[in-house]
Structure prediction request, 168 residues.
Amino acid sequence: MAGGGEGTGARVAIVMGSQSDWPTMKCAAEVLDELGVAYEARIVSAHRTPDRMYAFGKEAEGEGFRVIIAGAGGAAHLPGMLSALTHLPVLGVPVESKALSGQDSLLSIVQMPAGVPTGTLAIGKAGATNAGLLAAAILALGDADLSQRLQAWRAARSAAVAERPQDS
Ligand code: RP5
Prediction:
């Protein structure tokens, strides 16, 4: 894992409401690894550990983070609450829930009141991967080397798409 501890220079925080969110949120971590972007992953629950959430939201910028990726499922209040606590950009990932397949997560994250923005990604692993890519794109605005790596990553993805389908 890139980053991995306080004072390591991680610019991206990946936070999630539960250990059970990690298989989804790991997709953000994996793409950041591929792009050489340091991150730190933590469990921060809006409901079960509200004091931890408050402290993280207030201290994130001072810890050196520049972008927060926040994933949660069900009554997914973590991304919006963090948006209320920090001026850093917050990218919300709706984790696919068992009861409502993530529709609850999506609606809990997306409909923020004007003035408290939370970027909202797709439900599940695709959203987590894209949150990682968006975090990298935000950081790349001030990092020419990262911008080059991101463009190369995107170009490689395009090059990997065959022009014609084949029987497997
Ligand atoms: C949310 O409740 C978490 O983000 C998770 O997606 C969901 C279920 O959590 P667990 O009961 O699996 O810990 O707070």
The first strand starts at residue 12 and ends at 16. The first helix runs from residue 22 to 35. Helices lie at 22-35, 50-59, 78-85, 103-110, 125-140, 144-159. The CA atoms of residues 21 and 147 lie 29 Å apart.
